[in-house]
## 1
Amino acid sequence: MDAELKTRLEALVRDNPIVLFMKGTKHFPQCGFSAATVEMLRRTGADFITVNVLEDPAVRQGIKEFSSWPTIPQLYVRGEFIGGCDIVREMYDSGELQKLVDGVSVAGEASA
């Protein structure tokens, strides 16, 4: 990944308390895993932004390298990589996701 893309990804993760890199947007998810992750975040009441990786192939590949995680979606909370849909689901089921996102506030969607 080039330095410019790395800087962009670092800024998105740093500047947005909860960011979900996904296929589509929170209003129009374009894969089942992304849709499921959005729904779990909504159920917690989390205020989060989304980055549609389908809009930019460099971001789609770059985020995988950035996190060392091979799949999309990818959730970051307070700058920390949390994981993909399966991990978010486990955290949601155990109540950990709710604790993690409580009190964190953002809004909108980002463009990478």
## 2
Amino acid sequence: MVGVKSVFHYDFQQLDEAARLLQEAAGDLRVWVFRGEMGVGKTTLIKMIAKQVGVKETVQSPTFSIVNEYSATERKVFHFDFYRIKKEEEAVDIGVEEYFYSDNFCFIEWPEKISSLLPDSFFEIAISVEASGFRKIEYRKNE
């Protein structure tokens, strides 16, 4: 079942509040997919979410490494960026399915590059920039 889409707007001064709202909305889902154009703020939002779940390290975009791993309070956080992959097989080669079913947080940028590899249940976040400079977030549970 695909969940009902919800929407809210935020600016960067409200980033921590946006991250908290998304955590509450995600519930027990550990795989989160982030959709949006380059530069929309996906990594910035992921950094705040990671901080709120207990990551103490500096969170950086895994653009070249594909995945970065961080220790958090209760579980690990895996941050994926599939922008540079050419074929889904590249993701299979790094063992994405093991990550996705590990019960750790998996934050995925550019999920459309690996759409057939995503688990059946995940939390989906779409970010866009409004003319005012605010970000619009649409989110839903896919279960």
